[in-house]
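Troubleshooting entry. Yesterday's outputs looked truncated, so today I'm pasting the complete records for two proteins to confirm everything comes through intact. If either block looks cut off, that's the bug. Protein one:
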Amino acid sequence: MNRTERSDSIQFLRERFDRMVSAVFVDFAGMTVEDVTKLREEFRKVGVEYRVVKNNLVHHAVEGRPYAGSIGTLLSGMTGIAWSFEEPGIAAKVVKAFVKDNPKLKIKGGVVESDVLTAASVENVLATMPGKDELRSTLLATFMAPMQGLVRQLNAPRQNFAYLLDARKRQLGGE
């Protein structure tokens, strides 16, 4: 790799780390080409960018960032990085689901904003975070709950009156 290619690669990585919401670092050693291709397809489906990187170039790309010193533990051996640009947990969810069928894929750790996560944190915390759609539906349900309660309270007297009439009808034997 000549200096221009090296500089371009570092710039490419730097741009990805600037735009990312989260990044998941994986070790893909021992995986077949077909498995890696399937993994890339899964990432593409959800809008996650995945690259196999040289560890040394990543070190240079993250210089000056708060996590630059602690990211070194993630950069050993074969490294692939999955960057998520919208939802922090989406890359971790794809990796966690993929690991079930392909145990050769190993999670090394991750970065969210400026925090470095362990492999266990990526798998147990980041991968279980609700996505945008889940959060929106929860927020909508929270906003609708008081209105639904009000409608129930307004309908309660009529409903109770209907129950009263039905009970009286049964009492008089007019079923």
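Protein two, checking that the full record survives here as well:
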Amino acid sequence: MTRLPGAAHEYPFQILERHLDGFGHVNNATYLEIFEEARWDLITRGGFGLEQVRERMIGPVVLAVDMRFHREAVNRERVVIKTRCLEYRGKVGRLEQVMERADGLPSCTAVFTFGLFDLRARRLLRPTPEWLKAVGLAP
């Protein structure tokens, strides 16, 4: 069983018909959209939402993702996306997200490699204190 130790950001979510593929379960690409929605909730609640991104012209960028599919997520199922930042080294961080079913078992686990991107200079930045707070690595 995959569980996130310590304090993880929790994002309740309900699987709907529009999330399903022809097999009647969540499409693999849709997991990425759901996880992104949960990440935006994390950083917005942490004080670094879209308004701050537009003001500062810096924001999150995904560099890589490793996804593992464990069990189907199906129509009208209520799940929780648990998100936590694993580490930040230099300009690059790693963040884990788990879609957990009501029975506590994971449906999908993803580890994202990400950074803070300067929208003007088009390059990665070292994380600011505000950014570290937004991703849960600072008080």
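Both blocks look complete. Sanity check on protein two: Residues 9-134 form a domain with the Thiol Ester Dehydrase; Chain A fold (CATH 3.10.129.10).
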